[in-house]
Write a structure and sequence with these properties.
The protein is mainly α. It contains 16 helices and three strands. The chain has a three-stranded mixed β-sheet with strand order 1-2-3. Helix 4 runs parallel beside helix 16 and helix 11 packs antiparallel against helix 14.
Length: 400
Amino acid sequence: MEVSIYCSLRLPAIISQHCKASYHVNRFLPNKPTTKYIESANFPLKCSTKKLIQPMGLYGENSTPKSLLFGHQKLNFIRACAELGKAQHEAAGPNSKFAKVLHFGSTCYKFIRPYAMLQVIVSSVSFFTRVLVENPQLFKWSLLLKAFPGLIAMILAHSYTYGINQIFDADIDRVNKPYLPIPAGDFSLTQAWFLMAFFVLAGQLILWLMNADPITTCLYCFGLLLATMYSAPPFRLKGSAIATIITIPLSTIINNVGVIYATMASLGLPFRLSPPVVFILTFNALFFVVTCLIKDIEDVQGDMRHNIQTFAAMFGPKNMTLLGMGILLVNYIGAFAVAIYMPQAFKWHIIFPAHSILVLWLLFQVKKLDKANYVKEASATFYQFLWKLLTLEFLLVPFI
């Protein structure tokens, strides 16, 4: 059975009507292999694969939920219309400077992995706020203006981290994540390298303009060094599963401690970590260990092809998910325990209800992933859910 979507580049209204009609018809059709073509008045454009094969589970069962299949069909439809819109834009005005700038900005946004960048922003702001909560007498509104450039420097550092990883993983991402800017052809490697240089130099310039002390600068540079060693040869620490679960949590601890130290230094306080902050750093470090275990589930195919020895490739996605959930449950039990045994340091009336809700949400998502049989799309969704959960944990930092 073949489904054709006919539209014209010269008539945007007709495009919208035909695309909507095709979608509403297609979502009631049975799940059979289909081929989608987009034909225009100017040229035919084939924008999807020849066959839509029902995803098979990693363990041989054909148990993909219908909702996931319909979601996959909808994703193909959206991609088809996006390609059509891109072609229409190029035909209408290929030399538009504004359009080029807009496209470059959109590509940069995808390049820095926005779902992970949100966590960076929230964690930096939360630890800055935590120091002020523990020392309310030192709060001044001028501190916010002084801290804002530091937040930009953190964003630049993490943009470098995600970017350098994509540069050296370009071949792997053509299999695992073909939608990323480099494998998709939106960024050339030369453009990516220029962007990396900008991230590093701009971050260092901000620290210099802020008169950052040597310890803050060293912590910042050490984070960049770890990011480089993680992705770039000859170190390529990500090639080792054990090195990965050490490097990423260590890098996170360094960044968070750097924010705490810089905030205390700007307030004229001696550096010290209170019991709640020590627990929070430990909790989040273990959480990042779990993300290291889970992040490779969707990349098993490409990692095995390029001889990347991840735990998911060696022991299977289901086992790694169960291990990760075990670590997180221990994490949450630890949060309940410290709230009970150290009530003078922790606010149990916030920890108990907040973490109870997050645990239930986590268990629901694990069950949903298992029901989908760990197919790539479901694994990617679950991994992004972990980042959302981690972001919510960081939001609790000033209040527990």
